[in-house]
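Sharing a chain and its predicted structure for anyone who wants a worked example. Both blocks are below, sequence first, tokens second.
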Amino acid sequence: MTATPTSPFGTWSSEQLILCRDDSLGLRAAIAIDDTTLGNGFGGVRFKSYPSAEAGITEAQRLARAMTYKNAAAGLNYGGAKSVLFAGPEPVSDRPAFMRRYGQFIARTGSAYMPGVDMGTTTDDLKWMIEGGAEVLWVDDDPSPATATGVLHAIRAAVASVQLCESLTDVHVFIQGVGHVGEGLARDLAKAGARLSLADTDRDRVETLAAELGAKVIVDSIPAEVDCDVFAPCAIARVVDQRTAERIKCRVIAGAANDTLSDDSVAQTLKDRGIVYVPDFLANAGGVIDVDGRHRGRTDAERRAALAGIGERVRDILGTARDSTLTTVQAAQQYALSRIEAGRVQREIAART
């Protein structure tokens, strides 16, 4: 049976699951193509260490599913996919050769998987993958600033939905993780007048940024213990589990981190407590939206308008959840699935004509 974006996770939950290996380079990778109803799979390449092969493969499948929802909800004609490169104990000795070889594996998918930047990879890596034959939508710009802008629009919409205020002035935002996206978000929020608390495992980086922006540094941060208006997770995945959801002291959760909730059931706990959760695949879609816009030659104004559309979608979906028994995750998934179903019907009609 063909997998669908509602299939449970397991060995057969993706349309395609491809394992790659080259012992001469120490390369191990997993490519998960979740759904291609709307088009070829588009999603980033994550390069990190995993405790086991199964853990990395499962993460690829989970993130590919999130990309299915993200691309569909953003109105893009791409399916969902993701890949992981398994980092070894030592750094790669010849990174260009390593990435070119991985590009060769990607090329064998026949463009069913189009890679992008993710944790642990850069636009230089994508350029080397292209040399290996991979099809890449855009490599000339870092998508991180657009991702940060999209999260800013999502936060604005969510803050308005709980009527904290009409602007972000003096709204207290706790950002967990000030890497490329988190730092950009912090700067955008500071310009908007928000009060900031920042946390990151890189102590020097976070203290430097906090000093520049007049922010407070949170040491050894536990999200549930930080009293704030908005919690913006921009680092590790699955940071909000059931225990955290029962204790967290905020009104809004919206950030750039993928896979924010330990599982979708946590969204019900947040709803019951009156905490607005913006599903990560809505909040962090700015990067893919901007990459698509650049690929299609959109103007700066057109790309800015497309990013602003994130706020509009967030407002609509939060409204749907507020006026029904649905959680925000369920409402957002329904929104994405309705577009995927429409695409499936169109494909079936086209196949019969």
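Comments welcome. The longest strand covers residues 27-35.
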